[in-house]
Amino acid sequence: xxxxxxxxxxxxxxxxxxxxxxxxxxxxxxxxxxxxxxxxxxxxxxxxxxxxxxxxxxxxxxxxxxxxxxxxxxxxxxxxxxxxxxxxxxxxxxxxxxxxxxxxxxxxxxxxxxxxxxxxxxxxxxxxxxxxxxxxxxxxxxxxxxxxxxxxxxxxxxxxxxxxxxxxxxxxxxxxxxxxxxxxxxxxxxxxxxxxxxxxxxxxxxxxxxxxxxxxxxxxxxxxxxxxxxxxxxxxxxxxxxxxxxxxxxxxxxxxxxxxxxxxxxxxxxxxxxxxxxxxxxxxxxxxxxxxxxxxxxxxxxxxxxxxxxxxxxxxxxxxxxxxxxxxxxxxxxxxxxx
Length: 339
What we know:
single chain; mainly alpha; Receptor-associated Protein; globular
């Protein structure tokens, strides 16, 4: 019996059974995610679910229990797990940073959900990969699955922040022109909030909404500068605070600030073109070792495992990793010029 059990556990059938169980677990988690992410019956909707308009008269009638779907029981376990993850991340000081990162990338997801579903998905992918592939190939697949989404989010965040920086001078010029035309500061802010393109439109509309709800407009703009990691917007807030204290022509001040930003952006573009070769060399030299490792794994499968089993191979891998990290930061330091 023991020999039969051992043969079963060593067979390919056992692998397929494990893969099937992982697939079922992944499907269950997907269903739970759909329940949690569903916005049809949120907290406010459930409170208002007892009434609905009837006909043209606008009358309301109580809804029966058959009209209301309660999904709390299905998602209770997942919700508790997400809440527990949020508490742990908040105590560790990670929750605020992840929330700011998601806001900057404009990803409609709660930070606790990302911190919970991300590791769960990575574990599922790792289970599939190590069951179906060799250890090294599985490790590369898991690293790709973990690093690629982070790289995409980072790319999206950087692109959005950079686009906001480029739109800011034009927005300030439009605000200054509106004030010269007779609009107040708040009216001009509303105008550029409605006319600007994304992402400036979204951020400025948020600032205008907060100001209309009674918040100090400088504080709202300062929070916008923090959200968008914008030094230029911080300068705008500083100029507004100084102008409120000492007075002066606000439209002319905004034009001066916008012109300074335009000149700095032009200088940044020139520096970027001059340092393009160094940045490209850094990317190529960083990718090349992993490319050659993958190529040797495909062409000579017996050669690569020795790097992880032999002493000299382990030393070579550690040296290569240290060299890659040092070289990457060194090249970044050379081509990163503050303006």
